[in-house]
Structures are given as structure tokens and as C-alpha cells.
Amino acid sequence: MALFSKANDGKLEQLVCVTGAGGFIGSWVVRELLLRGYRVRGTARDPGDSRNAHLHELEGAKEKLSLLRADLMDPESLRAAFRGCHGVFHVASPVSNDPQDLMPVAVDGTRNVMSVAAAEGVRRVVFTSSYGAAHMDPNRSPDDILDEACWSDYDFCARTGNWYCCAKMMAEMTAKEEATRLGLELAVVVPCVTTGPMLQKDINASNNQIGRYLMGTKRAYPNAVASYVDVRDVARAHVLAYETPGAAGRYLCAGVVLHRAQLLGMLKDLFPQYPVTAKCEDDCNPRARPYKFSNQRLKDLGLEFTPLEKSLYETVICMQKKGHLPVIAKQQLRANL
Ligand SMILES: NC(=O)c1ccc[n+]([C@@H]2O[C@H](COP(=O)([O-])OP(=O)(O)OC[C@H]3O[C@@H](n4cnc5c(N)ncnc54)[C@H](OP(=O)(O)O)[C@@H]3O)[C@@H](O)[C@H]2O)c1
């Protein structure tokens, strides 16, 4: 099968595959690729499920998107999905903290993706890692800069039960080793906590956290800092890392670092009518200090980061529209005062 087909205007359209196409980040990556004129093959474990129906509504989907059934643990299914593709965006991964499910799928699944990609003649892979693979190091001082050179401390993550971070570390290392061994070009996007409007109908884990804070169902917040980025920036980062000649290695995809109290203050300012979580789990110790970080590598590729306020605002409006949050009018707050 040809890697390229001719579009009407004579432009060459590349065929690429996105694993986990129906998920939060995967859907935005598919959208970005379609808008840029790629022919896209998306994988899902159950492509016919209504959870993936939104993909067919994307601009250009009718002409340029096909969905295939693939499971990361089933190399034969990946083979069919990658056949004829120039590039693979390996986005799929369980987003949970259950070590039984996580480790094999994240690590062996990534090994399967890399070896099938190489066998099928794929040239370039973009792997979706997580800042969970980079920032969890208790010995990094707040004065150190979080950047692409940073790795989480595996033993610390395992000791503290952060299996998601362990899995993402191991998966990213596997992608890197296999790319070197098999001669595949690899770029790695390392997104931080990702917010923003959802294309899919079901709520994903990172936006669910925002919803729980907004509704106050999370009774207290930790004395901790985290880094945030908008999902549209994450999708653009994937495509820039794919398209930029010579782009290789890690790209930390971080827009801002905030203490949780600052994040919740932002939510309260935007949506004062909601009972936003206001209590800290740890009032006794000094407030954790935000650390410095560098997103220069992505800026150098041309990425501009969306302000978190805009991202949070659109996340909440989207969750209201999709029925994940009750709509509370500002007047209701005044009436209750
Ligand atoms: N959201 C964040 O804050 C964040 C931050 C950093 C990194 N990431 C990374 O970004 C990627 C996407 O996360 P997300 O937030 O978009 O989560 P999501 O909406 O839950 O998407 C996860 C995707 O992984 C797929 N998947 C899970 N197990 C699979 C398996 N055995 N075989 C094939 N596909 C499988 C799911 O596909 P099905 O449709 O088949 O269920 C789903 O499409 C993950 O690699 C995650 O680690 C996310």
C-alpha cells in the first residue's frame, strides 16, 4: 500500500495512525491531523462503540478518517492498523493507578507498537509520555528547573504507590530503547496535567478531577504543586514534533505550574457560584513552593501555550454542556447569600 495518496490539489497526503483515537488527547490529535490534511487511521478497542462516535463528526473525517479495532496487547491487530502508515502517534495507555492492568499494557503494549511499526515500515513514531515520568523526584529542589533532562525516581514512585508514574516511565524507556534497536525515528511528548474541552462524550480522568474540585466533592486539596497544559496545545505539540524535520527526544508540554490553592482560586474566580473545594489537607506545614520549568523546546518548534484560565473556563463549560456538571447560574449564588 502506498504511504501517500494524491489529493485533488495534487498535494501528497500522508497516512498516519493514532492509537487510542477516541480518548481525550487522542481525539484532539486526530482532529489536528485531519485539519492539516493527513489521512488518519485511528485505533480503538471497540471502534463501533458510541464512545467513539464523535470522531466521525470531525471536519474531514468522512473523507480521511478510518477507525480500526486494535488492542495494544494484540500485535496482529496493530499490524493491520499500521500497514501503509508513514507515522504512528502512540497515545493509548490505561490512565489508572491499578498496577495489574497498567504495567503490561503500558510497557508490553508500547513494545508491541514499536516492533510492529518497524516491521510495517513506519518511519516516525510520536510517543505520548506524561510528566509523571519526569517530575516525581523528592530530591529535586524547587530551585531546579523541570525540563526534558528530568526523570521521576522509580523507587520513590513505587514506594508511594504512584503506579501510573512507574508505568509511564517504563513505557517511555521502552519506546526509546526499541526505537534505537529498530532504527525508528522517535519524538516523545511529555504532557502535564491536561485540561480543556472534550471532544468525546465520556469524562476523562484529568477533567474529572477539575469537576470534583469545582463541585467540592473532593473535600480537601493537597498541599502540592502541579503543572497544567491545555489539550489543544498537547495535540499541536504532537503534530509539531512529528512534522519538524530532525525533531527528536523529549518535549516537555507544560503551560504553567501552580499550587493547588492557586488552581482552585482560579476556578472560584471564574465560577463563584460553585462550592469549590476550600480546605487544605495539610494546614500545618508551609505551602509547597511552585518549581521552575522549561517549555522552551516546544516554543522553539513554534508552540504557543493557551492561558490556563481560558482552558479551565472552556473545560467547565464543556462539562456543563455534556451533562457532567450541573449548570448553576450566578444569580443562584446571590439568592442563597
Ligand atoms: N489527561 C492527562 O492529564 C494526561 C497527562 C499526561 C499524559 N497523558 C497520557 O495521554 C494519553 C491519553 O490519555 P487521556 O487523558 O486522553 O486518557 P483517555 O481519555 O482515558 O484515553 C486513553 C486511551 O487509551 C486507550 N487504551 C487503554 N488501554 C488500551 C489497550 N489495552 N489497547 C488499546 N488502547 C487502550 C483507550 O482506548 P479505548 O477506546 O479502546 O478504551 C483510550 O482511547 C495516555 O498515554 C496518558 O498517559 C494524559
Strand and helix map with partners:
Elements: E1 4-6, E2 12-19, H1 24-35, E3 39-44, H2 61-64, E4 65-69, H3 75-82, E5 87-90, H4 99-119, E6 124-128, E7 145-146, H5 154-159, H6 163-182, E8 185-191, E9 193-195, H7 205-214, E10 220-221, E11 225-230, H8 231-243, E12 249-253, E13 256-259, H9 260-270, E14 279-280, E15 292-293, H10 296-300, H11 308-321, H12 330-336
Parallel strand pairs: 2-3, 2-5, 3-4, 5-6, 6-8, 7-15, 8-12, 9-11, 10-14
Antiparallel strand pairs: 1-2, 11-13
Bound molecules: NADP nicotinamide-adenine-dinucleotide phosphate (NAP).
NADP nicotinamide-adenine-dinucleotide phosphate (NAP) binds at residues 20, 22-26, 44-45, 71-73, 91-95, 105, 109, 128, 130, 168, 191, 193-194, 204, 206.
Outline the structure in words.
Keywords: Oxidoreductase. This is NAD-dependent epimerase/dehydratase domain-containing protein. It holds the Pfam family Epimerase. The chain is globular, with a radius of gyration of 20 Å. The longest helix is centred in the N-terminal third of the chain and has 21 residues. The strands form 4 sheets. Strands 1, 2, 3, 4, 5, 6, 8 and 12 form an 8-stranded mixed β-sheet that branches. Strands 9-11-13 form a 3-stranded mixed β-sheet. The chain is built from 12 helices and 15 strands. The protein has a single domain, classed as NAD(P)-binding Rossmann-like Domain (Rossmann fold). Strand 3, helix 2 and strand 4 form a beta-alpha-beta unit. The chain has 337 residues and is α/β, with parallel strands linked by helices. Helix content is 39%, strand content 19%. The structure holds NADP nicotinamide-adenine-dinucleotide phosphate (NAP). NADP nicotinamide-adenine-dinucleotide phosphate binds next to helix 1, helix 4 and strand 9. NADP nicotinamide-adenine-dinucleotide phosphate (NAP) binds next to helix 1, helix 4 and strand 9.
